[in-house]
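Limitations

Structures in this collection are predictions, not experimental determinations, and the ligand pose is part of the prediction. Treat each record accordingly. The example that follows, with 3-methyl-2-oxobutanoic acid as the small molecule, is included so readers can see exactly what is and is not provided: the inputs are given verbatim, and the output is the predicted complex.
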Amino acid sequence: MSAARLTTLDFREMKQKKEKISMITAYDFPTAQLVDEAGVEFILVGDSLGMVVLGYKDTLAVTLDDMIHHGKAVVRGSEKAFVVIDMPFLTYEINSDEALRNAGRIIQETGAQGVKLEGGLEIIEAVRKIVQAGIPVIGHLGLTPQSAGQLGGFKVQGKDPTVAKKMIEDSLALEEAGAFSLVLECIPWQLAEVITEKLSIPVIGIGAGKQCDGQVLVYHDVMGLYTGKRPKFVKQYADARSEMVRGVEAYVSEIRQGVFPEDKHIFSMSEEALALALK
Ligand code: KIV
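Predicted complex:
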């Protein structure tokens, strides 16, 4: 029998008990299987898939259908982790009705447990409406990649006191609107510590220091699979790409040398059957 999935209550309890929460991204079935087996509590189907899987330069071209397609595979591949799917650019900003319709599609079509939205007070009605419909929501503040153009690029956010103050207000508003968790990306650790202490919901950091209740990284960065720019906050735990290239090189080389396939990889038929076939 498969283990029951974690719920929003488990995360609240983990924060109360000061147990650290681990989140990682996944975008397909085998990756979901392996990160679930490795014991992460949260799997995020991030719109970072635009860059690390689909080869776009940013997240803006990612569509709702892309997220649903990849989200379905991740839900199929995982048993225990809580699966959260990013709402992509312009699927929740226009109005709260559209936001709920799109969040509803994500949950109904993928079977995921929650959705993540970028932004604070400007999207608060969308968050409220989605939560009121019974869908768990995670907020995302700080460096919000969907608005990187407006933020002046992929830069640390919140060093400026006015921006820091707004981020604290936004985080409180998200909690009040019913978000059950919050991602803080690329902000000073002191600001992340303040927000983590002020909120009763778990705060998951990425480039936000160790005082957060948990951490998230992009799977392709962790495994050394992404060849693009790597932010300072990334820690690479494996060099899977080199190992994969070595594997494919060995395959190509054995084909060229006639080593593969070996006897154990082939099928045979009787000489009589062959003779009859050639008649
Ligand atoms: O899209 C994503 O992978 C994310 C994480 C970086 C938090 O939003």
